[in-house]
Every structure is written in C-alpha cells, then in structure tokens.
Design a protein that fits this description.
heterodimer, A: 121 residues, 2 domains, three-stranded antiparallel sheet, 11 strands, elongated, B: mainly beta, Lipoxygenase-1, seven-stranded mixed sheet, five-stranded antiparallel sheet, 20 strands, 46% strand, rod-shaped
Chain lengths: 121, 283
C-alpha cells in the first residue's frame, strides 16, 4: 500500500503492510535544546535553534556557552530533552462507547493534524 | 441403530438425568445463548463456529455461525440462540483466511441475558485459532492470551522526519516481547559527536536505556542493532550493538525509542525494524 505521511511529525509509514496487519502510527517526541536567547535561558525545538543562540555544551569537563557555529566535534550539547509534541497523532484506538450488540466503538487516541499520501521518492 | 429418544415425553427430572449423561453435559434452556468472541490483528479474518445441538425433540441439528472480526485488537462478539436442548460439540477456526498462530483469539461462552450485559454461565473453550488449528468443546481448554508462544512479527516502524528520533508504541490490546531491532542513523555534515541511545518508557518513566558503544561523527551512516540477551557491541565497521536484556515484556502504550545526544537538524534516522513476539492482551 502507498506510504502515508503524518502531518504532525512528518514521519512516513505503511498503514497496511504486506502481512495484512494494520500499522498504528504514533508520533515520536521532539528534541528541545537548552539555549540562551537574548540573555534568557529557554528550551526551543531543535529545528528552531538560531545562529545567534548560545548553546550550553560540555567542553573539557565544564559547561560553556557557544554559538552553533562554534560547536566542535568533541562538544556534547547539554540540556537536551525529549518532549511530546502538542499535536501528537496516535492511531492506537480507545473505546468510546458500545453499540447495541455490546461491541465496542473505537476511535484513534488522537488525530493530530491528520495524514496525507507521502510524496513519491 | 437405536431411534432417537422421545425427550419431549420425558419428565423434567428425566430430562435432567439425560442432560447429565450427554457428551458435553451442557444443557441449555431457551434463555441461554452462545456468545462467540474474538480478538484479532489480521485483515479479513472471520471466526467460524460450527457444531451439533440435540433438541428436546431428539433431533441433532448442525449449526454454523460466522463472526466478523476487526483488526484493532478489541473484542468483537456475536450472540446466537440454539434453542432448548443439549450442546453436543462445537469447533472454532479462523475460517478460510490465513493468519499466523497468535494473531486471532477466540472464546465461546454460554450467557443468559442480553449481549454485553448478560450473565456468563459457562466458558466452553478459549484460545488462539488459525484456519487449520481449531479450539473445540468438549475437550478443549480455556487458555489465556498470554500463555505459551506468541505471534512472531517483523514490524517496520515509522520513518521519522530529519532531526527527529524514532519511537514505536506498543499497540492497544497487545503486549510485546522485543527480540531484536535495527535502525540506521545517517548524520549530516555538522561537526558533532552524536550519541545514539535507545530505551523503553511506560509513557511516564524510562524503564531501560542503553548507550551506544561509540560516538557517531558527521556525514556517516551507522546501523544500530539490539538482540535479545546481548550486551553492547563495539562498532567494528558500521554496525554497533545496543544492550538488550532478555524477557523485556512491554505492555500496550509502552514506547521503544531512540534518544540521540547532540542530534542535528539534518540527521536522519531511517524506519526502525523490530522483531517482536506479540500476544493479544485483552483486559
């Protein structure tokens, strides 16, 4: 089956693989980076780190602040966290009620921003 | 051949005596019904329940009932009345659709009352079924979903966007025993040592984490692996191993994830490939 793309996280997956068992996508968390921006320490998503932000890095056993351009290979970024995205999509089902035959009525745990066909590679 | 007994002519006490001697010893009043329930993961599977029923008039009737199952691991049930008499035997399979052992679980009960709110009077049989491996009454067992061996599955996860770690959540209605996994990280040209870790969480707390045995540098592609019962394996060329203890059972909603230290916006994990033993796990 054609791959789908999750509009919440950008991940791509096959909702019905060849073994006939549907795949239930759930978005992974995002990585936030601890930076100093305009003099204030804040946590920002990795994709939103600016060239003017100061990163907190572990260098030679101490935590120092460096611009992204000054980050060197042996630095270790400090303060990263993984957090759930606010618009997380989770296709795993939850029971929302029961029909007149007693069978459960289900819905995805959270729709997020929905899905679309993945662009062809 | 003896003619069938004229059961209708018997007194209630005599009928009860006959019932106690019937092969299945399961006398059903007209108020008692069969409740056939199934849990399933494979597309297109239906439960087929067939058997024989001895009426009060002494006739042996055959019956076949078909239950459409969903693939979302929640219960699907069907209630059918057999009338007044004795259930002699029944057998349950997953019909003509091929599904592996461990993918479809069936349970047959005798219930009095409406579907979903009836009183369960007896459980006749329960267990995993395939098209070739039935469960049956009498003589069958009432098995648990998490008894014995599960369904061995190879699962391709979500291929995350660049700069995003991967995470795979155990689906609703099952539990997994993680046997192996592999995932590839391709790094961008940014100079940084990435530390590719992996672990499990129950959604609130981390339960296990493993460091990578090596840092990963810019513009490289490394295939990370984990195998049931293996310790970390240092990278020789491009395939290091994370540590993975044995018997790591993960319940529905638990998540297996990567957490990459110093991950860069252009770093790109591929879709993880998991080998799991899956058990249906209804509450």
């Amino acid at each position: 089956m054609a791959l789908m793309r999750c509009k919440s996280c950008g991940g791509e997956y096959d909702p019905l693989p060849t073994d006939g068992v549907p795949y239930f996508h759930a978005c992974p968390p995002i990585t936030t980076v601890h930076v100093e921006r305009a003099g204030n320490p804040i946590d920002v998503p990795l994709a939103d780190v600016r060239a003017t932000d100061l990163l907190f890095v572990e260098r030679a056993g101490a935590i120092v602040r460096v611009l992204p351009a000054a980050f060197v290979e042996t630095d270790r970024r400090s303060g990263d966290q993984q957090i759930q995205r606010a618009d997380k999509r989770d296709e795993n089902v939850k029971v929302t009620g029961y029909d007149k035959t007693g069978n459960p009525i289900v819905a995805p745990k959270s729709e997020g921003k929905g899905t679309e066909p993945a662009p062809p590679k | 051949m003896f003619p069938p007994p004229d059961l209708a002519a018997l007194s209630p006490a005599a009928r009860a005596a006959v019932a106690l001697q019937s092969p299945g010893s399961f006398y059903m009043t007209g108020e008692d019904v069969l409740q056939i329930s199934g849990w399933n993961i494979t597309t297109g599977v239906r439960l087929t329940v067939s058997g024989r029923f001895l009426t009060l008039e002494g006739r042996i009737q055959s019956f076949v009932h078909d239950v459409a199952l969903t693939t979302d691991r929640v219960i699907a049930s069907l209630v059918r009345s057999l009338g007044d008499g004795w259930l002699l035997n029944l057998t349950v399979t997953s019909g003509a659709t091929s599904s592996p052992y461990g993918a479809t679980f069936a349970r047959v009960q005798v219930v009095r009352g409406l579907a979903g709110s009836g009183i369960v009077l007896g459980t006749l049989c329960a267990g995993y079924v395939t098209s070739a491996q039935p469960i049956a009454f009498p003589g069958g067992r009432v098995r648990s979903m998490i008894e014995g061996r599960g369904n061995i599955r190879s699962i391709t996860g979500t291929n995350p966007a660049a700069g995003v770690d991967w995470a795979e959540t155990v689906p609703t209605g099952v539990r997994w025993r993680l046997l192996a996994l592999t995932a590839t990280l391709a790094t961008d040209a940014t100079a940084a040592n990435r530390q590719a870790r992996f672990g499990f969480t129950d959604g609130a707390a981390n339960l296990y984490r493993s460091d990578a045995p090596n840092n990963q540098t810019a513009s490289t592609s490394v295939v990370y692996n984990a195998g049931h019962g293996t310790a970390r394996i240092a990278m020789v060329s491009d395939q290091p191993g994370w540590g993975l203890p044995t018997e790591m059972f993960l319940l529905a909603g638990y998540t297996i994830f990567s957490a990459t230290g110093s991950i860069q916006a252009g770093d790109n994990w591929g879709a993880p490939q998991l080998l799991v033993e899956e058990f249906l796990d209804a509450n």
